[in-house]
Amino acid sequence: MTATLTGVDVAPPVTSVKRRRRVPGWLAVAPLLVFVAVAFGVPSIAMLNGAFSVKDQATGASSYSTENLTASLQGAYLTALLGSIKLSAVSAGIGTVLGLPLAQVVVTSRFRALREAVLTASGVLANFGGVPLAFAFVATLGNAGVLTKHLHLADHGWDLYSFWGLVIVYLYFLIPLMVLTITPALEGLRSQWREAAQNNGATAVQYWRHVALPVLLPSLLGGFVLLFGSAFAAYATAAAMVGSSVPLVTLQIADAISGNVLVGQENVALALSLDMVLVAGLVMAVYLPLQRRSARWLDA
Amino acid sequence: MARRLNLWRWVVLGLAALYFLVPLAASVIFTIDVPGQGVTFDAYSQIVSTDGFGSSLQLSLELAAATIAIVLLLMVPAMVALRLGAPRLRPAVEVVCSLPLVVPPIAFVAGIATVLKWGPEYLSRTPLFETFVAVQNQNFPFVLVLAYVVMALPFVYRALDSGLRAIDVRTLVEAARSCGAAWPQALVQAVLPNLRGALLNASFLTLALVLGEFTVAQLLGFQPFAVWIYSVGGSQAQLSVAVSVLSLLVTWALLLALAGVGGRTRTASSRG
């Protein structure tokens, strides 16, 4: 009886799926896939191809080798790559540490309006900065900036166009990104867990040390990795602010694309791009499993 | 205990407000309190008459319109079709739409620049060369639209996916079909009106992306709005900061309005 019932229940949707799949499915998805293959695939393949091909200056013939990649991991290029990694790691670390308390305060707030406002503002700030953000900070903390002049920061050795200057600017979009990333995990923390800990005599610090942080750890790590990727890929802010006084891989690539490289090293920009894609791919490869893991914890 | 918690709350919120509001306030002060001239609003009144403001803003808006049209034309039918059937394609589309996240814009533009160089190097005798020249037309560089559509895919995918999750596409389409609607009619008159919030969301995100985009446009040598702000910055500090403040505020106002619209449609649909 049950068997026939479920059989009847299941059968019609299956046939209807089969009937409909043939006509619209492929046809509607195909333009998207073709477009991406052309607009995204061709440049990616060009990058890959260029990163591995070397032109012989004398004959003009090109051959495949790993010369460019080796060059991209040496000298000034290596300095830039390491500079980018250091800047991204430091600002992502600070962003994670500062974003967590802000998100926690917002999530546990009794005022709905405050919550909504902060989360909306975070969504806006996290995604869109670029040149205007850089100029806003130049006007605030630059050499002729309002705060620099009124607080005489230059006397204390302040310089916006430096490593720490960039960190301060990057945090402007990294902290909101962290708030957005960690909020679902914080919402998943059950109040029962805190109550249970309190009933067993745990202090607030013990609760965080032994209950909340372990549960949040995958989300925090995932957030850190996401922030790292975001800082690593940032170009506009750095270009508009520091020019080339801080060595960054994005600035090196831009220089090379604009033609400011030694003859025979044109393809090093592509090799550097490939390095960046590998780092970004690594970021995603770490982030996605962490994301899935924290989702499983909080849904359970 | 409760008091300490409240103090902590206010300290965190206060510091956050300080950090996020001071640069904006300081930028405004920077533009109206010019050394040697006192308080003046010249920087703001000069914006419109400055060389390149109108043309670069117009270019950005045109690029945004074209990008939004193309990305929606590509994504909406595909996403609806995935809901109706073709489940095997869903992971493929999800991966394709997430790929741009793995390739930073600067790496992407390095690839594009390489492809564009093929034009003069290999294709100068073929009809394709004309295409290469046409997409790089200074008045309307279509190559930027291609790049922006790719860069918008992750945002648009997420916006449409959450919109489609909230409605039962299959029932809507089947209802429209049994009332005698043809496929396009079912899509336009039954599905799209229910996706209004998600479509708006996707459009606004794309608009904000295109208006603020700098990397690709600058390195390919075109001058939409963000690149113009950058180029003005070298010579007219007050003016460039004034434009920056305005453009940040306009972008944020757009996105806040969008959040408002999105929130309202969500509550409206849950009530209805």
TrEMBL record, chain A:
Name the record gives this protein: ABC transporter permease subunit
Annotated PROSITE patterns: ABC_TM1
Sorted UniProt keywords: Cell membrane, Membrane, Transmembrane, Transmembrane helix, Transport
Positions of transmembrane segments: 26-46, 87-107, 119-141, 161-186, 215-238, 268-290
The organism's taxonomic lineage, starting at the top: Bacteria, Bacillati, Actinomycetota, Actinomycetes, Kitasatosporales
A GO-annotated cellular component: plasma membrane
InterPro entries for this protein: MetI-like, MetI-like_sf
Family: Belongs to the binding-protein-dependent transport system permease family. CysTW subfamily.
Subcellular location: Cell membrane
Main location: membrane
PANTHER family per UniProt: INNER MEMBRANE ABC TRANSPORTER PERMEASE PROTEIN YDCU-RELATED, INNER MEMBRANE ABC TRANSPORTER PERMEASE PROTEIN YDCU-RELATED-RELATED
Domain ABC transmembrane type-1: 81-287
Organism: Streptomyces guryensis
Highest taxon of the lineage: Bacteria
Gene3D superfamilies on file: MetI-like
GO biological process, one term: transmembrane transport
Short name of any one Pfam family annotated for the protein: BPD_transp_1
Topological relation to the membrane, as annotated: Multi-pass membrane protein
Automatic annotation (TrEMBL), chain B:
Gene3D superfamilies noted in UniProt: MetI-like (1.10.3720.10)
Cellular localisation: Cell inner membrane; Cell membrane
InterPro entries cross-referenced by the UniProt entry: MetI-like, MetI-like_sf
Pfam families xref list: BPD_transp_1
Record's bilayer topology term: Multi-pass membrane protein
Source taxon at top rank: Bacteria
Record domain ABC transmembrane type-1: where: 57-258
Gene Ontology BP terms: transmembrane transport
Sequence intervals crossing the membrane: 7-32, 63-84, 96-119, 139-160, 198-221, 241-261
Keywords linked to the UniProt accession: Cell inner membrane, Cell membrane, Membrane, Transmembrane, Transmembrane helix, Transport
Signal peptide residue numbers: none
Family per similarity comment: Belongs to the binding-protein-dependent transport system permease family.
Protein name: ABC transporter permease subunit
Originating organism: Streptomyces guryensis
Lineage, top ranks: Bacteria, Bacillati, Actinomycetota, Actinomycetes, Kitasatosporales
